[in-house]
Amino acid sequence: MNEYDSEILSGILQNDNYTLTDTPDNADVILLNTCSVRDHAEQKIHSRLGELKHLKTKNPNLKLGVLGCMAQNLKDDILKSKPYVDIVLGPDSYRSILQHLDEEDESVVDTKLLKFEVYEGLFPARKKGINAWISIMRGCNKFCSYCIVPYTRGRERSRNIKSIVEEAHRSVDQGFVEITLLGQNVNSYHYEDQRFHSLLLALTEVKGIKRVRYTSPHPQDVDEDLLKVHADFKPLIANHIHLPLQAGSNTVLQAMNRTYTQKHYLKLVDMIRHYVPDMGITTDVIVGFPGETDADFRETLKVMETVKYDSAYTFKYSPRPHTKAYTMTDDVSEKEKAARLTELIVRQKEHTLYNYRKLIGKEVEILVESESKRSPEELKGRTACNKIVVFPRGTYQAKDLIKRKITDAQGVTLFSRP
Ligand code: SAH
Ligand code: SF4
Asked: Which of 12, 48, 64, 145 has its CA 20 to 30 A from that of 54?
């Protein structure tokens, strides 16, 4: 989402005759688009700002901006510790960037959350490549007790379906062959009487798109209508779903306000596999939520063992201001969180390899992306179920859809070699 937002900002600036530079030393404007979801993300920005500060003495005209969730979270406090920052802009205030860049003197803090802002009518300046991000909804109404997003990004709002389809056409015209729909809870999309699966259906009609992906859906809003569209339009609608679990224990899930139990979640996974047996399923997991006992943690491992995800983003719980969990005691020690995380990662690696090895001997469809990191003789691409495959260069070109037999699997990579 931040990448997309940065492309929107880049679009606004380039329309006003700004150009991109690849080194901060040459820049007259430096904007850091930030994340607040964990404290670690904010700490990285604090040190980055410290590193950039000296450029202001070299170039007195340099404008330094902090944008996005951290701006929304800390507001004026950013200026208290870093008075050299010129612009603090929240996620709904990007339209005013040019006006603020023209202001001469005082630092400005603009963090109003606007109920209807979806950046309609603005054109993201996309980096060249295979995939175009398209934001379809913003904000979140779910209020998971650990999560700062509803406070930094405001309430849910969805874009007009027509303008999303137009943006998809424009992306194809610009040379993109894959689109990824984005939203804090992408499948909570709701525009007038149109829901998420209706949007996917509309996108299947856009000529030139080879794959449609989306992230992140919330388990609560995954329904049979959506799964039917997956089943009917595979692999154009890619058979991959990111289904954040967060925790396996019902006590923890309830304290997290996740709106499902372990049983519901596992039933949903069964339903997904009923409609799309080869769906690639990935997840997010948090360890060490307040009150999480070792037995609770074992429940998370149990779900992971049952589902066998293709991959998982795993996080140590990080207390975030404003949230309900912030008032709870962060009582799982750092050492215990680290131990749980390590155990989880070890198990996940086994599951990844288990799933990947099942594809050996099978033919898969690959969207060719680029040269492989290790050898110029080989290319890499992605299966519809979102697994990286390395194969001989041959006469293949980026953006080709090709079919190849998998011959090996190592780590998080599939290989198709003679
Ligand atoms: N809307 C998505 C997730 C968006 S945030 C969903 O509900 O699934 C991305 C991920 O960051 C979350 O899935 C969660 O695993 C992690 N996360 C959010 N807040 C966190 C916190 N306070 N500590 C640790 N991880 C957190
Ligand atoms: Fe955060 Fe929960 Fe909303 Fe996801 S659904 S963005 S985890 S509050």
From this structure: 12
